[in-house]
Design goal:
The relative contact order is 0.12. The chain is about 45% helix and about 0% strand. It is flat and about 65 Å long. It is mainly alpha-helical and about 130 residues long. The N and C termini lie far apart (about 55 Å). The longest helix has 23 residues.
């Protein structure tokens, strides 16, 4: 495994020792965040109807851990992100969420809240007959 080879080389070069502990016995590892197909298509349809197809994209897959994965193990879920790029804001570059240089365009917050509410309301409307 490349990870261990890199450690071995650094230990040799720097004439030291290294210990790696992922604390697997102490910490519960995060599961992969996987969207439920049905909920994914539902949320995507709501987004396209609300924002227009041209304003809904597919995000690249990432390897980051996400607390939402624990919910998605128990309930059908869809993880989505709300874009915050505002080309009219004077910024040299957009920075990722956990960057110390990240700046949010707060004008997007009502859109995100409305979208979350619409996903829930449309789901309940579509499935109201099943509850009876």
């Amino acid at each position: 495994m490349l990870f261990w080879k890199i450690i071995e080389v650094h230990v040799t070069v720097h004439r030291c020792t290294a210990t790696v502990d992922f604390m697997e016995e102490k910490l519960r590892p995060y599961p992969a965040t996987v969207n439920d197909e049905g909920m994914y298509h539902h949320a995507k349809e709501v987004a396209q109807n609300m924002l227009g197809k041209g304003n809904v994209g597919i995000a690249a897959r990432t390897m980051g851990a996400e607390d939402f994965a624990f919910y998605a193990e128990k309930f059908a879920g869809a993880f989505f992100m709300i874009g915050v790029r505002n080309k009219t804001m004077e910024m040299e570059a957009m920075h990722r969420l956990h960057s110390p240089y990240f700046v949010i365009d707060e004008d997007v917050l009502p859109v995100g809240a409305a979208f979350h509410a619409a996903v829930a309301m449309e789901y309940l409307n579509k499935h109201a007959n099943r509850a009876n």
